[in-house]
Amino acid sequence: MEARNPLQRPQALVVGGFGLGQIAAFASSFYLMGVLGDAVGRDLGLSPTFVFSMVSLSLAVPAFIAPRVARRIDERGGKQVLLASHVVLALGLVIVGVAKDGVGLAAGMAVIGFGQALGLSPTPFAILVSLYGEGARRPITAVALIGGLGSVVGWPLTAWMAEQLGWRGAHFAWAAVQILVCLPLTAWVCPPTPGHGPRAAALHADVRWDRPMIQLAVLFACAWFISTCMSAHLPRLLGAFGLTPQAAAAAAGLMGIAAVTVRFLEFTVLRRLPPLATTRLATLMHPSGAAALLTLGAPAGAAMALGQGAGNGMLTVAKGVLPLSLWGPEGYAWRSALIGRPALFAQILGPALFALALERSATLAVLATSALCLVMFAMTFGLDRRPRIAQEPAIA
To answer: pTM to 2 decimals?
Structure first.
């Protein structure tokens, strides 16, 4: 019988396995259509608008079912949920790979969205909290750091798969990665994570929509709205300020580098700061880059990308760490799901609304997202921090 002591798995092994799983999960779901969408649309006779609306469909599924997933994690533990995510993602990829029309594509993307709800960052974060309690900040940061390479690794790897195997073959290849690599890896590195059983219902009843909960929900909803706006439109935004398409694409690429860099700093240096302080700093990164862009124009395109990337990179960590810091590990998965649910809906609306603003005025669009960041900054005040009751263990 497998022991339930998490120390039987070195923390570095758990973190590394989760991080690699997150790279594969993001690359084969969230970032997939960014490379394959045009080819899928051409082959199936579908418009780009329809194809990328299916991406929105896949994002909508977690918004509706995230609380149920969190309830399951709290009741029975997260390992089985994470294992199931690999199977579901593989199934969705196969359905898209054999799709003959828009109905097949929609079905596959909906299943992929279900897999995202089961396996993207909230689930491994909840498992880490169940394993390491108050000391989970650093492993959460490490998993976010590694998982942040999903686009850096995923985009070129998916493009290579498509070149060698076609877009259908690329979907089948990622499905094979989920089943043949990620599933056994998770089974090996993740310790058993028993849930709270019947006690989970009582823990959930204690989670109430008080003022701090509402503040964090507003903060992360604004953050995820801006993140999807920038992911979809940053090159176009920079082009509106005078950058050539090539220069805009190059500058936008700095966003991912900045996100990974600040997560590394959070893991090594900034971890000594209170999570609330780093969150407050993160909310000012985008407005700083926007101020440079509005003042200097095209020469500050890189500053805009770096500001957005740095802020978003820190906020991704904050979303996992702040609920733990403020309320502790009890009911963590459920509370985090409730706080994060408005953000899931906000990210669906972001690209379309920002496109409308950008059509009217690039300056207006930048001012709007910067104003939302100032709302986020305001939401960081008045939050009562819990005293630290356990020192973070070093990664062994």
So the answer is: 0.81
